[in-house]
Amino acid sequence: MKVQVRRYRSCDAQATADVFRAAVLRTAAHYYSSAQLEAWISGSEDLAGWDQRRSAAWTVVAEIDGRVVGFADLTAEGVLDMLFVHPDRGRQGVGRALVEVVLGKARRRGLQRVRTRASRAGRPAFARLGFVVDAINLDNTIRGVRVPNFDMHIVLADPRAAGQRGWDRLRHSRLNYGSQPRHRYRPGGSGYERGLAARER
Question: CDD domains, alphabetically (predicted)?
C-alpha cells in the first residue's frame, strides 16, 4: 500500500466532502453529540461552496490505489485548517503523509510555525506529529452549536540546523560519558528523527 499526495483539483470536491463527512460522523462520533456532528458537517453538501473553500487554500489530497482517502490544507495565514482521513484508512500513515507535505509547503513559504484548531478526535494525532496544545476552546461554536476544540501549533525547525544541534548534543554526551557504549548516530535514521522533537514527524 502506497500513499500518494497531490494537489487538490475541483473534480475532487465530491470525494473530499465524502471523506470529511465520514471522518466527522464516524471518527468524531466518540467525542461529540449528534447535534454537534450535524452542525459540523452542515454545508458540506454544497459542492460548489465546498470546492471554492478547498481551492481558496493550498489543499492536497491523499490517494491509495487511485482513490481519495484524505485531504489537508494550508491557509494564507499559515493555518492547517483541514486534516481529515477516511476512517477506513486510519492509522495507515495517511494523516502523517498529508501533514508532512503541508509542513514542507509552510517551510517553503518561510513560515516558522503552523497553527491548527484540532478537534477532540484529532488532537492525539496532531500531538503524535509534534503539535502542542496552546489553549482549549470550550466555547467554539459552529452554526450556533458549541463544538469544543484545541488551539495547537508546531515549530518548523530548519532540518539542517536541527541536524547540527543533534550532533552537538551527541558530542557533548561523549565528552561527559566517555565510558558509555558508542552508537552510530546517523542523520536521517529513525533514532535521529525520534530525538528531534521539533521535526515535522
Answer: NAT_SF
Total tally of structural domains belonging to the chain:
2
151 is a domain residue:
yes
Q: Which domain holds residue 110?
A: 3-155
pLDDT digit string (tens) for the chain, length 201 residues: 899 999 999 999 999 999 999 999 999 999 999 999 999 999 999 999 999 999 999 999 999 999 999 999 999 999 999 999 999 999 899 999 999 999 999 999 999 999 999 999 999 999 999 999 999 999 999 999 999 999 999 999 765 544 444 444 444 444 443 444 333 333 334 332 333 333 333
Residue with grid cell 465520514, as numbered in its chain: 22
Residues 83 and 163 in one domain: no
Predicted model pTM: 0.78
Local structure of 111: helix, strand or coil: coil
Residues 6+ apart with CB under 8 A from 61: 5, 6, 7, 8, 12, 15, 16, 68, 70, 71
Q: What CA–CA distances, in Å, run from 29 to 9, 33, 195?
A: 29, 7, 34
